[in-house]
UniProtKB/TrEMBL annotation:
Coiled-coil ranges per UniProt: none
Highest taxon listed in the record's lineage: Bacteria
Lineage: Bacteria, Bacillati, Actinomycetota, Actinomycetes, Micrococcales
InterPro entries: Transf_Hexapept/Carb_Anhydrase, Trimer_LpxA-like_sf
Organism field: Protaetiibacter intestinalis
Protein name (record): Gamma carbonic anhydrase family protein
Length: 199
């Protein structure tokens, strides 16, 4: 289903296929030969999403952009089932496996692999032909690629990337951080109340 959001309607190349149960909302461009499978959600929430040629977005994947972090996915990319990509730049011929997570401001170079349940964290930069192993975490610029058992090292780098400040404009030390965050984000998401289906 295609939706107009904030005055923008999706643009889908006539050779692309969007499954009837997929949701594509807002300023989204889907290139030639793309396949958007059942349950996928592609939501441009204030910033554009561009998807290049012959890219496949599999079942229940989530792609999202914001006003500060557009999303660009290159050509011949495979986004696996239940993967989540938010406001990042993904190069050509990248494999984002099942359950992988890519956060705002991340940049993944061409021909890289982010394997099952792996994470590319906020503002992390992976050079071309990188691999993030199953369930590992890439964090920082330049990226450190660390196993999930190395939480203290991951947190040391991640803390400086400032997720609440970068994504939500809130200081981590705010006493009622989650109250501020959820109220601000709910106001932002409420803009979907005016969405309308595109014929």
């Amino acid at each position: 289903m295609l939706y107009e959001h904030l005055g923008h309607s999706p643009r889908v190349d006539p050779t692309a296929v969007v499954a009837p149960t997929a949701v594509v909302s807002g300023d989204v461009t889907i290139g030639p030969g793309c396949q958007i499978l059942h349950g996928a959600v592609i939501s441009a929430e204030g910033g554009p999403i561009t998807i290049g040629e012959s890219t496949i977005v599999m079942e229940n994947a989530l792609l999202r952009a914001s006003a500060t972090d557009p999303l660009h996915i290159g050509d011949h990319v495979l986004v696996g089932p239940m993967a989540s990509v938010s406001g990042a730049t993904i190069g050509d011929e990248v494999f984002l496996a099942t359950g992988s997570r890519v956060f705002n401001g991340a940049r993944i170079g061409a021909r890289s692999e982010v394997r099952i349940n792996a994470v590319v964290h906020l503002r992390t930069v992976l050079p071309a032909e990188s691999t993030v192993p199953i369930a590992w975490v890439a964090v920082g610029d330049p990226a450190s690629i660390l196993g999930p058992d190395r939480h203290e090292e991951i947190w040391e780098i991640q803390q400086d990337l400032d997720f609440p400040g970068y994504v939500f404009g809130l200081d981590r030390s705010t006493p009622d951080l989650m109250v501020q965050l959820t109220e601000r984000y709910a106001r932002h998401l409420a803009r979907h109340a005016d969405d309308r289906p595109v014929d």
